[in-house]
Amino acid sequence: MRKLRVIVNAVPLATVNTGIGRYLRCLYAALERGYGDRLEVGYFDGRRVLPTPPEPPADLAARSRWTDLLWRLPPLAALGVRLARHCQREAAFWRAARGYDVYHEAAFFPFAVPRGVRTVFTVHDLSLLTMPEHHPAERVRYFRMFFFRRLARVARFMAVSRFTKDEMVRVLGLDPDRIRVTWNAHEPDVFHPVDAPLPPAVPERFFLFVGTNDPRKNLHVIPRALAASGLDVPLVTAGWSGWSRERREGAPPIELGYTEDRTLAALYSKALALVYPSRYEGFGLPVLEAMACGCPVVTAKLSSLPEVAGEAGLYLDDPSDPVGMAGMLARLAGDGALRREMSRLGLARAGLFSWDETARRTFGEFERSLAGPAG
């Protein structure tokens, strides 16, 4: 029997290993492991198709600095950079996709494809539509130039949470029967309780935030909450600096920038808690990674976050309220029994998410797409 030929836009794998890149790397490792006898995957790296996933850049810090620079360009200049790069990649992709059965996209929107190729599109969130004020202006304009006209050519959709699926139905008017929920997961061989050295700048007791300084994530509230709590416990942040221009108050955090997985797992394992007061997430992978490392999680009861944390999370009534957050952080810092119980619950909760299950659902959608519209 002929293998199902799938081409995936693997450009995010050739960049810094966060977000969509991590999703693709973990998902396709599980797909190759579980369905390699029925599946032939071509990885498009922006220029050509490779038989194996592209490697991230050797100098991740330099790549992160380049991204920061793009965010700081005037909107029209940044949009021009995006469009020039997009046109080059789409032309290369069109040539590369000929002869494939299925095209899988997991970034902003799908490329145009040759006739006969079915498109399966993973949607991580709709914040570019529902919260455009929390994104760089050039990114929003780029997205809106292509997103809606490409939806009509998608055979099957996947959503990384029930919350995201519900938004796709409500905001985009999609038929829910065309959308399959395929949750994210964590990597058990990476994210588990570890006793490893921390970076020299990190003290013995600290709270942790992981992610970009995107305004909707409310990072700027945490130092204010710590100041109000009276605790002598710093905040450590891991991730890109992001594009937020929110005014900072309170003691400045210890900023580690982009952090390798091994160090990230150690941070999760030793933090008093992950503080993740985001107002909107399509999934919220740092919450799951933290729980897998036995780290208590303080988060918001909004969007997808309760779907991920379940009964293992401590929820803020208002993630933008520093006084309410201060009370919860003080309680956690002073109650070792509570931290141990949250750690136990988090480990159990994290065990419910599996990349093998996500791969099973994804392969099923690839097969179902063959009955849908092509090209």
From TrEMBL:
Q: Which InterPro entries match?
A: Glyco_trans_1, Glyco_trans_4-like_N
Any Pfam family matching the protein: Glyco_transf_4
Specify the superkingdom: Bacteria
The family database entries (SUPFAM superfamilies) matched by this protein are listed as:
UDP-Glycosyltransferase/glycogen phosphorylase
Coiled-coil stretches noted in the UniProt entry, renumbered to this chain: none
Q: Which Gene3D superfamilies match?
A: Glycogen Phosphorylase B (3.40.50.2000)
What name is this protein filed under? Answer: Glycosyl transferase group 1
Q: Which organism is it from?
A: Solidesulfovibrio carbinoliphilus subsp. oakridgensis
